[in-house]
User: Which sequence fits this backbone?
């Protein structure tokens, strides 16, 4: 067997394999024999059709099958011997059978060769969140809100209130539009974006007030129209929170808590854990984004396609598994392509870091991971977790998780990280 490789681009190669008659003839004869056993031709008993007739009738199909099988067999051997890192399946471009040789041409994408820029001089800011008593009370109030009661208030509307109002719609010139009056429309102000024109006009308004609102088209709406509204506030409603009692606490926590102080401690702990994870995740995203920006590594199309399909499937799950009828999934794919390219580039960069640092995941690493997970969940047993993590179903996933932690460990130890105290961000229920 002879073979030659040719670089087509930084992420593409072609491979030509030349096999002698001695190397390809046994496979060719096997395929002819398999065809002979199954083909039925009038005038011949099944299994007794002459070889020449088999080759005449089925020659192209048989040769294509032989070429595919031999290409698959020898590509793996050559890739391992030559340290080729294919990014996907090789495609059979062409093949030619001669009396003494078989020439096969394959094309495939590869992981590009590159060197990472030195990242030891990079600096990052890590947000440090401190949970205050006020944060705990705000979180408890959000939990209690689902059991609150809407009451009418005379005070001006606040950002979390509901405003009930009548609307009259006008065109851009101020002409009232026919059949465009709406009565008792409910504006839930807390769910409207801060820059929503109705929210901006209604915060501060009280019952009996009339405000004017202008709604302009979005920048990307070429034929959009401007409309004006006259909004008369009829009522402002505000959520009145119930008193926190042991009985109510038992109800809202499904029996987990009956005493207030342990509940407060649990809320604080949950907030601390959540924002500690957020701080860590934000830092890691900042580090990976910087490395992606500084290392514009060429990405194989196959790899980008794979991440794009993953993002599309994630989007489908938000719609229950399939996009609704008429949904423009092509536009969604186009919008997700840059993100898919970043995912692919980060995979290449992280693989390079693992390779440079000679990182690997051992059975001891998996055992330590199982022990940590068991500490988080007292009902879990280390032995049971370890057995699951070592299984074929979960081992690849756990190995990838541990390897990612090791990669980020290398990065965090190499760059400069400065902590910055920050208050907890405000959020609504």
Assistant:
């Amino acid at each position: 067997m002879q073979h030659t490789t040719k670089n087509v681009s930084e992420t593409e190669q072609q491979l030509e394999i030349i096999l002698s008659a001695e190397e390809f003839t046994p496979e060719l004869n096997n395929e002819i024999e398999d065809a002979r056993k199954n083909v039925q031709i009038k005038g011949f008993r099944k299994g007794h059709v002459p070889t020449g007739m088999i080759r005449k009738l089925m020659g192209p199909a048989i040769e294509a099958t032989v070429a595919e099988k031999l290409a698959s067999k020898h590509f793996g051997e050559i890739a391992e011997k030559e340290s080729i890192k294919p990014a996907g399946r090789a495609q059979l471009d062409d093949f030619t059978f001669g009396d003494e040789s078989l020439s096969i041409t394959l094309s495939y994408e590869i992981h590009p060769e590159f060197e990472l820029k030195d990242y030891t001089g990079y600096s990052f800011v890590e947000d440090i969140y401190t949970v205050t008593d006020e944060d705990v009370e705000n979180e408890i109030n959000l939990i209690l809100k689902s059991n609150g009661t809407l009451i009418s208030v005379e005070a001006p509307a606040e950002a979390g209130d509901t405003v009930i109002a009548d609307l009259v719609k006008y065109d851009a010139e101020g002409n009232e539009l026919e059949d465009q009056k709406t009565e008792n429309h409910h504006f839930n102000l807390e769910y409207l974006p801060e820059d929503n024109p109705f929210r901006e006009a209604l915060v501060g308004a009280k019952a009996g007030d009339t405000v004017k609102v202008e709604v302009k088209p979005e920048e990307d709406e070429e034929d959009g129209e401007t409309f004006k509204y006259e909004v008369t506030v009829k009522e402002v409603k505000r959520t009145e929170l119930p008193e926190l009692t042991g009985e109510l606490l038992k109800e809202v926590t499904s029996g987990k808590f009956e005493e207030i102080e342990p509940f407060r401690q649990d809320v604080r702990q949950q907030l601390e854990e959540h924002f500690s994870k957020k701080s860590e995740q934000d830092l890691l995203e900042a580090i990976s984004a910087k490395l992606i920006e500084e290392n514009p590594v060429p990405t194989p199309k196959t790899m980008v396609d794979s991440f794009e399909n993953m993002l599309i499937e994630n989007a489908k799950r938000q719609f229950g598994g399939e996009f609704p009828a008429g949904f423009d999934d092509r536009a969604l794919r186009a919008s997700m392509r840059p993100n898919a390219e970043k995912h692919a580039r980060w995979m290449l960069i992280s693989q390079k870091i693992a390779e440079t640092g000679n990182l690997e995941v051992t059975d001891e690493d998996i055992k330590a991971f199982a022990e940590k997970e068991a500490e988080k969940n007292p009902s879990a047993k280390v032995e049971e977790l370890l057995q699951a993590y070592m299984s074929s179903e979960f081992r690849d996933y756990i190995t990838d998780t541990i390897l990612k932690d090791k990669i980020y460990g290398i990065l965090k130890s190499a760059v400069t990280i400065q902590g910055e105290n920050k208050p907890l961000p405000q959020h609504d229920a």
